[in-house]
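Q: Hi! First time asking for a complex rather than a single chain. Here are the components, and I think there are two in total. Is that enough to go on?
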Amino acid sequence: MPNGQPAIRLDHISRHYTMGEAVIRAVDDVSLDLPSGEFLALLGSSGSGKSTLLNLIAGLDRPTSGAVIAHGQDLSTVSSLELARYRRQTVGMVFQSFNLLPRMTLEENVELPLRLAEVDRSDRAARVHEALERVGLGKRITHRPGELSGGEQQRAAIARALVNRPKILLADEPTGNLDSATGESILMLLKEIQKNPGMTIVMVTHERPLAERFADRLAVMGDGKLLSNGAAR
Amino acid sequence: MKPRDLSDLALRNLREAILRNSLTTLGIAVGVASLVAMLSLGVGLQQLASKRLSQSGLFDSVFVTPRVNLRGMGRAAMPPSSDQAPRLLDESARQEISRLPNVVEVYPQVRFFTEVRFDGKPFATMVAGMPASSKASGSFDGMQGSFFSGDAAYETILQSEFAKELNAQTSTLIGKDLVLRYAERQSIPPNPMDSKATSASNSESLPGGFSVVPKEMRLRIVGVVDTEPASGFGGYGNGRLLIPLQVAMTLRAAQVNDLRDIVRGTSSAPTFASLTVRAKGPAYVEALEASVKNMGFGAFSLLDASKSLATFFRVLDMLLGIFSSLALFVATLGIVNTLVMAILERRREIGVLKALGASDRDVKQLFFFEAGVMGLFGGIFGLFLGWLIGRALNFGTNFYLHRRDLPSVDISSVPWWLVLFSIGFAVLVSLVAGLYPASRAARLNPVEALRYE
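A: Yes, that's all I need. Here is the structure of the assembled complex.
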């Protein structure tokens, strides 16, 4: 699937936190190129910095030094308004704990990014339905997240991440709260989504077997450093 | 985010914590209610006071007397600075004054003592002539019966105190007749050939005179009025028996100034003891008073009294407003508290919104909008509550007045400006209260917010 176009370039990025006197190097001088259309799995133990790295790619955080260049845009220098636009239009994000808003129906949850992107009301319903159909939840649009299983919630979260037709999908431990069978079906869904032309996926996980089965490339982090950027298999 | 989506989300958020947001809104409502109740009381009392005073005709009237009246009555002589020769207050002067700008009408005060015969019994009282325009002054609002059917109708309206002397059931008096006994002036000309003389004083050289002859006249009672429309200054006591001014003037009843005028004997034409000049409104009184003084007459108005009254009510309104603003201030703290709590509670949601692409401004606007909506609802509800309190105060006051046989009054009033002001103020205060929580929510770091459980 990779077509060789660099979608994300991490250029010597670091993210340091200060805690009193101590400096915590959550991400320490990481460089990585991701071609467009690639499915990268980011492996590592807890506290290895993989989630911090994902947040930097997501535009939720800014690096202390270095540059994050996504589709030609340097995220470390753009304004916070531009960064919000990037999160709205270029990336979609999926979390371990789904992060669906519990009082909204699936339809309303998935509509949320369209509201933020000021998509016309007349177009929204069709796009929401299309996104939910795609993840196999077309018949559950009026349900609330609490009425769904974990796997279904994660599918709904994926629909929400895709509804604005992003170029990059970021998943932070998407199977972490799911049993292995459900986790596998979620990864199959991600693999399916990757077939969209130019869709780049970065998934943080610590389940190496699943990553090895579905991802194009495995990168391993430890203590904030990239231990292996695992050339494409 | 588009305004409609913003309002959708904000209203949804408000509904989701309905109890807490309702209590906060109620807090604002109580603040607004106390503000509205206090201010409506201030406005109502002011309207009541100025209505009572304007009914007396004191505020839009200038009372004109001949300057010469002030001389030799135990008062200091006129200061020599007055250039104008003292002028007589006669018909030509009346015409001249009525041509001044912003004058509605000029009429003489006709008041005289009388004895009324009713049911065969005598009652002493004072008659006052009422100009036709007094019907519109508000003095006769809520009267029993009706106003005079015409300028020259032989009809009378009784002041209720006097009416009760005639019959405790004042309503039964209407339609009945009474007999008015009064003293009529009959001129004695110095020259018997001069039959045209009609006044107390005539002739260029020698003063004439008049004799006083008792006369009777039958009048029909058409109404009973609570207020004393003919009270006030410039007259000689309160008129308790009111008749049309034109009728009063044709009676040629002996008046208090007649004796003075006959000894002075300066003019052949009839003169007036005083004239009442009604201006279009209290605003014109000051200029009118000055013009009349320039014409060489004494003039007097209660303008200064009305000015200090207005100042008094402005200060009263301000004090009432300050006290009730304290309640609104407490409500403001409630809004701040509610929204800050909401940020803590919705930390994760804010993180999700930001991850989905909400800008700082979107989040800020969302909280700001929620504060504004609470203010709007609090304002509307508080306005209603305040109006209700005002009504209750009114009811209580009137219940008390009614038990003491006093006429009912409106002590609380909610004018349009107060409606708009209270709602606008509630929204404004809420927005100010929302400033800090909104900017705090907007500044929330999404990574930390998403980590928050």
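A: The longest strand of chain A covers residues 6-19. Let me know if you'd like any chain examined more closely.
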